[in-house]
Amino acid sequence: MVSENLPDSTEDKPLSLDQLLQLRSGRAHELCGPARRLLALWALAPMSGAILWIRPQWAPEQLAPAGVCPWLDPARLIVLGVTRDTEALACAEEALRAGAVAGVVAELSSPPPLTPLRRLHLAAEAGLARRGAQGILALLLTPELGGAPGVESRWHLSPCPSLHEMPCATPIAPGWLLRRLRARMTPPAAWQIRGAEALEVQAHLEDLAQLPQLQPE
After folding, report:
1. What pLDDT score does 213 carry?
2. Per residue in 78-115, pLDDT tens?
3. What gap in Å lies between CA 172 and CA 131, rounded to an integer?
4. C-alpha distances in Å from residue 79, one per residue of 95, 105, 145, 161, 165
5. Tens-place pLDDT, residues 21-40
6. Burial readout 195-205 (b: 16 or more C-beta within 10 A, e: otherwise)
7. What pairing do the DSSP bridges indicate for beta strands 51-56 and 77-82?
8. E strands of 25-100, at which residues?
9. Which residue segments constitute the domains of the chain, with CATH numbers given?
10. What is d(CA 203, CA 34) in angstroms, rounded to the nearest whole number?
11. Torsion over CA of 109, 115, 116 and 122, rounded to 10 degrees?
C-alpha cells in the first residue's frame, strides 16, 4: 500500500495491515529483520504493476514462487541478479527513475551510505511524477538491524508464532512482530501480526520497553 503519509499509531481503533503499511510513495524505505523479504511482499501486494527484485547472485536464498503466491502473482516479479551492492543501487536508481515498475526491491549486504540514498529518493520522485496515482516504492532490504541513513522509514519484521493453550504448546498460526524503528512523521511503534493468508493486526504494543531487545541475526 502506498500513501503520502504514515498512519497515526496512537489511534485507538485497530488498523488493518494495509493501513499500517501505508509507506510514502516516491521515497526509499528500509526493511530489516529475519522476515524482511516477507515484509516487502506485504508492502507491495496491494500495488498494481511489475516489481523489480534485485538480489545478490551469490546469496543461497531465492524467492520461491509457491511462497510468493499468497501475497502476489509471481508473474509480476522481474528478478535481477547482481554481483555488488553498488550495482544493485545503480539498477534500482535507473528503474525508479524510469517509472516503469510499481516497486523496486534491492537486497543489500549492508546499509548503503547517505549519497546513494539521496539519489534513490530523487529517482523515486522522478518515477512518481511519471506514474502519478499508481505510485512507486523503493524498498531496501538490509541485514541485521538495518541502519541506512536518510531513509523515509525503517521497519523490522521477525517471527512471533502464536501458541496453542495446550501443554504441548503446538504452534497453531503463523505470527510476526512488526516494529517501526524509524519514520519521519511518526514515532517508533510495534504490532503483533497473526494469520496465514488473511493477516490480522492483533495488537498495538504500546510499551516498547517490555518487548524483547532486538538482536543481530
Report:
1. 62
2. 999 999 999 999 999 999 999 999 999 999 999 999 99
3. 42
4. 13, 9, 24, 30, 42
5. 889 999 999 999 999 999 99
6. eeeebebbebe
7. parallel
8. 28-32, 51-56, 77-82
9. 2-7+15-154 (3.40.50.300)
10. 20
11. 150
CB 171 within 8 A of CB 165: no
Take residue 199 and report the three cell numbers written for it. 493477516
Of the candidates 159, 157, 139, 135, the residue with the CA atom closest to the CA atom of residue 148: 139
The single-letter code of the amino acid at 52 is: L
Residues 118-128: tens digit of each pLDDT = 999 999 999 99
Higher pLDDT, 21 or 44: 44
Residues found in the chain: 217
**What is the maximum alpha-carbon separation in the chain?**
57
Closest alpha carbon to 148 in 117, 121, 185 = 117
Distance between CA atoms of residues 190 and 120, nearest Å:
27
C-alpha cell at 180: 517501526
Q: How far apart are CA 120 and CA 95, in angstroms?
A: 10
Cβ contact 188:10 at 8 Å? no
